[in-house]
Amino acid sequence: MDFSTTLSTAPVSDERLAEILANPGFGTHFTDHMVTIEWTPSEGWHAARVTPYGPLTLDPATAVLHYAQETFEGMKAYRHDDGSIHTFRPEENAARMVRSSHRLALPVLEVDDFVAAVDRLVEVDQRWVPDNSVGGGEKSLYLRPFMFASEAFLGVRPAQHVTFMVIASPAGAYFKGGVKPVTLWLSTDYTRAGRGGMGAAKTGGNYASSLVAQQEATAQGCDQVVFLDAQEGQYVEELGGMNLYFVHDDGHIVTPETGTILEGITRASIIELAGKLGHPVEERRFSIDEWRDGVTSGRITEIFACGTAAVVTPVGSLKSDAGDVPAPASTDLTMQVRQALVDVQLGRSEDTFGWMHRVV
Ligand code: PLP
Ligand code: COI
């Protein structure tokens, strides 16, 4: 795919950029450029371009605004201490977008084109990838590829005009206050995904449906919400934006598998990493009673959550209408897994799995 490039005539100044990168937060500042590719049934994917970052003009009848036909991805670019820039398993994000797009009746953007689009933006906006060589930080450039129904038409059918874009935003810690256990609220009034639904797809609707449950969590004084399966209300699924892991006293780890969770790329990577560290990971259904009993009896020694934005974060106590479950005793393995992952991403340890993709 050939990309045309129109560079910004008003990029953020070096002084302002230094200020932003010193304290990027999450998802608030955006780079100087964006990538756009268009699709129609007759032309396929075409008009691939890099342009200055800026607002879109949309017809009020644009289908995504009404029927939410949309998919997105979340990934990061990391600057290594030698100045080179790498993304983490980008072909996995591309493959997941293909799966999500199938579920949302959107066209397939081939893996190579997805990766090329992301690479192009990282290359053009490379000065936005934070440098961690002094002070051992963990900042990165968060990348947000997304695809949406851009046809102006109110009939309910797959759009005949679709737009794929990539934008980028420098990222520091996702949770304010750095790495410390997050407290969770167990949602029993709301579920995230049902059988045959969109739970395994990365699509905006899943996040829209999580917001009221997250609001409830916040009102309960908790950081994040935990969802249970929709059918029986017994099995742990995931958080609003992260997968879960339960570490047991004999060293093995359990991560929920229900068919309706988002299959995280961090999740898949941790299954491999933890195995290498001598902690086999079992993927299976995991009930809320097992959580409660396991922590109470001491059989569960740690719980953690993971995702691209939040990396790996320890889980503390769980609050619910049926009573609270205290925080597990330890966070040692959580922090070990976190370090092992971050070290590969930031080029501080050998990439034995071949996960990193060099862009610059
Ligand atoms: N689950 C949900 C609902 C998410 O939004 C995310 C974040 O992307 C994850 C899990 C973790 O996925 P990944 O590790 O690919 O970022
Ligand atoms: C991510 O980790 O990339 C996510 O998508 C979580 C959230 C920011 C939506």
UniProtKB/TrEMBL annotation:
PANTHER family: BRANCHED-CHAIN-AMINO-ACID AMINOTRANSFERASE (PTHR11825:SF44), SUBGROUP IIII AMINOTRANSFERASE (PTHR11825). It comes from Nocardioides plantarum. It catalyses: L-leucine + 2-oxoglutarate = 4-methyl-2-oxopentanoate + L-glutamate; L-valine + 2-oxoglutarate = 3-methyl-2-oxobutanoate + L-glutamate; L-isoleucine + 2-oxoglutarate = (S)-3-methyl-2-oxopentanoate + L-glutamate. InterPro entries: Aminotrans_IV, Aminotrans_IV_CS, Aminotransferase-like, B_amino_transII, BCAT-like_C, BCAT-like_N, BCAT_family. Its cofactor is pyridoxal 5'-phosphate. Its EC number is 2.6.1.42. This is Branched-chain-amino-acid aminotransferase. It is an enzyme of class 2 (transferase). GO terms for molecular function: branched-chain-amino-acid transaminase activity. Keywords: Amino-acid biosynthesis, Aminotransferase, Branched-chain amino acid biosynthesis, Pyridoxal phosphate, Transferase. Pathway: Amino-acid biosynthesis; L-isoleucine biosynthesis; L-isoleucine from 2-oxobutanoate: step 4/4; Amino-acid biosynthesis; L-leucine biosynthesis; L-leucine from 3-methyl-2-oxobutanoate: step 4/4; Amino-acid biosynthesis; L-valine biosynthesis; L-valine from pyruvate: step 4/4.
